Amino acid sequence: IPSAIGALEGVAMELDDCAFPLLQEIELADQAENAFDGANIALLVGSRPRSKGMERKDLLEANGKIFTGQGKALNAKAAEDLRVLVVGNPANTNCLIAMNNAPDIPNQRFSAMTRLDHNRAITQVAHKLEISKTEITKMTIWGNHSATQYPDLFNCKISDKSVAEVIDDQNWLENTFIPSVQQRGATIIEARGASSAASAANAAIDHVRDWIDATSENDWVSMAVCSDGSYGVEEGLISSFPVTCSNGDWEIVTDLEMDDFSK
Questions:
Q1: Is 127 among the catalytic positions?
Q2: Which biological processes are named by the entry's GO terms (predicted)?
Q3: Mean pLDDT estimate for the chain
Q4: pTM above 0.90, yes or no
Q5: 59-74, pLDDT tens digit by residue?
């Protein structure tokens, strides 16, 4: 938006000062169609935050307008190989709105970010077991990027063993682990007076890198993508699934078993 150009110029200065070897040029824009002209990767970070006294329907209405416009601009101006990551909350809903306003872009090119939740879940397990995060594979965040998400330790692995079985502590799983992952964002806001910034940026980098370069062998990641009906999720909804990536495409991991608690 035009009123934010000054702040955007400051961000551009900081990016310049990082001296990233692959950063050759920065172009600033205050109109979506200009910003997305020829874009190969679009990170949709800006969304209307929920303010005091604002009802959820008001928040959805405000963000609906933002992401309707961005979807139309992407449809009109972006490159044919476009990939879209929606970070701005409510990310799943905003992604759905943008996707549905870009009819010429395949649904598979849109995703919302649950990688931050994925990374948070891995960290909690590593702390609990006092092991390296690199020993933990096949973490999954199911559902929405919200307090209703489900971090799955039943299918998560350490040396081909289920993390849920290794930990063997249902009380910790239900009353410590799951709530801590679901509420981590709120906990950070309470602690620092602002929402997650550096960790969210790092998660966005992780998300796009794996999407473009491929996921590691014998592992998967969490991405909120357009459902094909897998696991009973209504087709066409944006929901987080375990996915593998290769050649710039993602594929939902199918036929995972669920224990009774996960169901």
A1: no
A2: malate metabolic process
A3: 94
A4: yes
A5: 788 899 999 999 999 9
